Structure formats: structure tokens, C-alpha cells
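Records of this kind hold a single protein each, on a pair of labelled lines. With that in mind, the following record should read easily:
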Amino acid sequence: MAEDRPGDTEPVYLSLEDVLSLHGLIIGASSTQAANQLRNRGGLESALARPAAYANYEDADLAHQAAALAHAIAEGQQFIDGNKRTALVAMLTFLEVNGLRVEATDRELADWILSFSAGATPKQVADLVRARAHLIK
């Protein structure tokens, strides 16, 4: 996997509205209904800021930023239900809007997200993502 996006441009980060839309699709609801499922709006906003923080303070590549985002959503439990599913879809969406696609089975993807609950770090999951990601042509 390339360390950075093609052209070395700034990454595209997901907004609160983006993640609420994704969560709504996952739970079969509108973005407004998804927002009503939030336990802590500030916590989700903090989770969404994590990839940029990792980029700025740890010089994290896209895989590490994506894993940090997934970790923050999955483990932060900001929604009433569907946190891990939202974490996975947000991670994959973040990577795709930044020019990378992950080739992994559904089971592998689920295992990556579930591994956070078992103590995996974003760096460890980033290593898995990096090994399975490729540039979108």
C-alpha cells in the first residue's frame, strides 16, 4: 500500500453528518433518526477528530488514521446500538474517499473491529489494513 494518497494531498476526513448518514444506513433509519441514537455527540465529534490528530502528532498514514477512527467509534460506544458496524463502515469509507480499497473477507473485517475489544491497538489493526489495502484505479 502507498504510504499516502495519490498526489500527497490532504486527506478527506469524515464529518459528523457523514457518520450519521452511515449509521442511519446500517440501522435502517434516516440521519435524523440516527442522531437520536447518539449517547454522546461530543464523544463522536472527538472520535472523528482522531484521524487528523494521529496524522499531525504521530505522522500516521491513512491506514493508521482509519484504524484510529474505527477504534474511537467502536470502543467509544457513542451510539445506543451498532457501534462496531458503524466503526467498520466509517473506516472503509474513510479509506475509499482517500483512494484506498481494502480486500478482505467479511469475517476478517469483523475480526479486526472485534479485536479492539480484546485489546488490539489502532497500530496493530493498521498493520492488517495496510497489508490488504490497494490504490483505487
Observations:
- Residues 10-135 form a domain with the Four Helix Bundle (Hemerythrin (Met), subunit A) fold (CATH 1.20.120.1870).
